[in-house]
Amino acid sequence: MEAKQGWFRIPPAVIPDLVSACDGWLSQAVSDAARDQTWGEAALGLSFVVPLIREDQDIEESVAELQRVAEDDVEADAVAWVFPELTQPVKDKDRVFPGVFLFIRAA
User: Fold this and answer.
1) Is 93 left (phi over 0), alpha (psi -120 to 50) or beta?
2) Using an 8 Å Cβ cutoff, are 62 and 53 in contact?
3) Which domains does the chain have, with CATH numbers?
4) In this predicted structure, what is the pLDDT of residue 29?
């Protein structure tokens, strides 16, 4: 098993660039997992992806669009995410980190 992490800014990220970045991080994790595979264990690549959304954007709308893209467009065997509503989002300057995606692909 190998994991990678990625961060992307919304905007300026556009959907094709986002999908390409997520697929790239996941492909790198799968490649590393396959190379380091041990006997009898399935090789899995994992990618944790965190969106950075501008505070002046509609965060709920942005997250909904990202969830649709994660389910429909990223080539993964499994997808999960958490965007907690009950907690204060983590902030950095003018960006909010509302949650995280997890993409999993078998090697």
Assistant:
1) left
2) yes
3) 2-106 (3.30.110)
4) 92
Q: Hey, what amino acid is at 44?
A: L
Rounded to two decimals, what is the model's pTM? 0.84
Q: CA-to-CA distance for 70 and 40, rounded, in angstroms?
A: 30
Two structure tokens written together for 44: 């899995």
Question: Residue 18, exposed/middle/buried by CB under 10 A (0-12, 13-18, 19+)?
Answer: buried
- For the chain, the residue count is 107
CA distance 18 to 103: 13
Cis link prior to 12 (omega < 30° from 0)? yes
- Read off the pLDDT of residues 50-92 as tens digits, 9 standing for 90 and up: 988 888 888 888 888 889 888 999 999 999 999 887 566 777 7
